[in-house]
Amino acid sequence: MMIWTVTVNPALDITYGVSELRPGQVHRVHDVQVRPGGKGLNVSRVLAALEVQTTATGFIGGHAGDLFEQLLGECKGHSFIHPAFVRTNHETRRSVAIVAQNEATVLNEAGAGLTEADFASLTRTLSAVGNSDVVAISGSFPPGNSDYLPHIVKTVKQAGGTCIVDTSGPALLEAAKAGADILKPNHEELADLTDSHDLQRGIDFLLGAGAGGVVCSRGEDGFVAQINHGERVRVAPPAVIAGNPTGAGDASVAALARGAARDGLAAAQDGTVLRKWLVDAAALAGAAVAAPVAGEIVMDVYDRLLHAQA
Question: Which residues is 225 bridged to in the sheet?
Fold first, then answer.
């Protein structure tokens, strides 16, 4: 069994620390961090912190892609991450987070469009997915490429893998129609898709469209989830953690992937098992908020939050 992470549109994550963000003013940056990023890779890095092996794939290219690959081989926990990225002719994008007073302002480049040949190469890479492997597909697609998401989901499903998708907008519905096993929207993404703030209605909508399960994150209020029309479960975190929320959603996907790999998707129809996954997701999300950059966790915060709900 292997956990895979797919980051179609990865980025060099650049984090600037400033004492205060003042639009239109010159700032002195007191801390700079440059890391290989993208939501799927953040999932891999969180799992690496827990000493869980993953295979990380997606697309990289250009000089930024070279630096991305170099930094990935140097990052903490890199021995637990097996890179299988597809090389393209397009420059890897950059993402800039400006962190001031425990708030993050994020500037994301869109990324360059990819070709059919690029996605054919990714399909060949994913042909190595084994029966019972878990594949987490996270983040945005470059402009004009979102229609490839259903194909990736179907490729994983045909290989016998369990597919977790963390995306937004129309792609969320397309992933449901393609039969994604778990969708992980946040409450705002779900409301935008259904034109309703009724979470239960939104979850029913995605289940009805073909999703195997839905885990909806509600920020400081925790999660509401249901798998394969099993028991619907709500979990709230035991404490609110101040910090950088950029990687909290990716940390919760890491928890879901680990849970699905350990227990199997069908087991989460039992509310007791699903609750265990969500408790872990809430604890990892809080530990990610406490970390200075996305893709990292503060282990003692994780342990404290996890034990508080034991």
Answer: 215, 233
